Each structure stands twice: as C-alpha cells, then as structure tokens.
Amino acid sequence: MTLKLPFKQMDVFTNTRFKGNPVAVVNCLNIDESEISDEQMQSIATWTNLSETTFLFKPTLRECTYKLKIFTPANELPFAGHPTLGSCKAFLQFTNGNEIKNVIKQECGVGIVNLTVDDGKISFVSSSNTFEPINDQIVEEIRCCLDTQFIDTPLLLHTGPEWIVCHVKDAQTCIDLKPDYQRLRNITKKYGYTGVIVGGAKNNSNIKEKLSYEMRAFAPGIDVPEDPVCGSGSIALIAYLQGLYKFQTPMNVDITQGQCVSRKGEIYSSISFDEKGIAIFSSGGSALCIIDGTINI
Q1: Active-site positions, per UniProt (predicted)?
Q2: Domain 130-282 fold
Q3: CB 275, CB 256: distance < 8 Å
Q4: How far apart (Å, rounded) are the C-alpha atoms in residues 71 and 77?
C-alpha cells in the first residue's frame, strides 16, 4: 500500500531563499515507525540526492518532543546540524508550534539534543564534542589533498559525525582551497571519518570579544563533496577553537559558509560554561520552507 506523507524541503542557515543548505523532511508523526523501513528511508534519501533527508517520528523517550532519523544519500547519520535545525522548523510548521519562544527536545542517534527557538531562530546544544589527536601520516595525507598549510595541528572531533578539523591562516586561504575530492574520499573512507572541516579567521576576529570565521566542509566519502552550510561542522570548529585558545569567559563565533558553492550561509555559534566551568557549545540560525507538499512512498 502506498503511504502518502506530508513533506517539506527547508533551506537552513539563511534568511534568503536558495542561499542556505536544503534538507528534505518527511512527516511520519502520524504513522508507526514500523510502517516505513530503513531501506525505504535510505532509498528516499538517495533519490532526493540532498546532503541529508530526515524523517520525523513520535518519540520513544517520554521527555522528548519527537524522534528524528537522518540519512545521507549513502547512509544513516546519528546526528547532523543543519538537518536538526531544518527538521525542527518543519516540525513547528507541521504542528502549528510556537516559533517565537519554544524549547524542543530531539531524540536521535546521539541521544537527546536540546533546541531553543527564539524569535524564529533555532539553536541546538551539542551533546557530543570530544576530540582526539590523529597521527602525522593522516595529517600529511589530508594536507596534500587540500594543498595547503595548517597553522595548528588538525584534530578529530566527535560531534556525532566524525570531523577532522583543520585551521588555516585566514578566511581567504579557506575560500581558495581546491581539494582533490577523489583522494579525500579515499582517505576519509579508509579511516572511517565523515569528512574534513576547514576554518580560517576573518580580519575582524577579536580573540577577546568575538570571533568571525569562514568555514568549509568536505565529505566526499558520504557522497557530499562540499556541504554548503554545516551545523555539526560548526560545533566541531568551535570545540576545536576552545581547545586551542582555552577561553575562560563566553565567546560568540559568527561563521559564514557556502561562498564557493554559490550559497550565503550564516551560523551563529557560541561557547558558554556551566557552573563547573565545563564548556557548552551551541550553534543556530534561520530556516525557510521552500517546498511544501506530500510524498508517495
């Protein structure tokens, strides 16, 4: 039997139509999760051919607002940033929820992700942001793929996706990168990484007040050569910067992304601290609905 389900395509991290990062969202809130298989969801994600396609379900955890499953054209992800924001916005529209002030708890592959809705902008707090060093051989392989120099040692960040974060001289160096996608695909698949995040500071960055960064995200190993605007990548970048600069007071980090693929993404990230002084990382932005209809499954 054919399932006919509500469907939206959202544009995330932008206030300008067609300048953010799209995500397809299928509303499965009114069906049982058993009525659609992982194979069907993967087929849909492969067909939409977007970096991610998501599926909203009723939560299995009582404290959560909904459950989200996220698929790339190649595989399922435990978490991803821009699909989380776009899916939250779609959920609010599907359910006529409050887009001015709201708190959402998303159940997904990394557990519970807390989201805040404030005057139309949605932000999420990362529940996973540990990092570890990578060996010199891998660093050199990645450096050769990007044909650039790093100003600090790259690290592996666990933000749900497994991102290698690389820090380059400045924003223009980041923009000028011309990766060897095939070599990068082979390396990331070989070592089991999602991809590579590259960040470079803008001229107006001030380490004592606010940072401004240009960022790019390369994930050819999961069939996303360059992600236009990447939420989990922004968390990886600011966690890396916290490890690098050891901020003791809250810091805002404004990130732009997408210039090299004709987009204009804006991510508003922040580093704050709990009562024990442990860093808390959040990222957010705007999202727009571009397509509103149904999908036959």
Answers
A1: 52
A2: Diaminopimelate Epimerase; Chain A, domain 1 (3.10.310)
A3: no
A4: 6
CATH number of the structural domain 4-126+286-296: 3.10.310.10
Q: Do 157 and 239 meet the contact criterion of CB atoms below 8 Å apart?
A: yes
Residues 6+ positions from 15 with CB-CB distance below 8 Å? 266, 286, 288
Calpha distance 289→24 (Å, rounded)? 10
Q: Which residue has the tokens 């990886």?
A: 236
The whole-angstrom separation of Cα 52 and Cα 226 is 13
The domain segmentation of the chain, as residue ranges, is 4-126+286-296, 130-282
- Write the pLDDT tens digit of every residue in 206-237: 777 789 999 999 999 988 899 999 999 999 99
Write down the catalytic residue from 52, 107, 214, 226. 52
User: Which DSSP symbol is given to 23?
Assistant: E
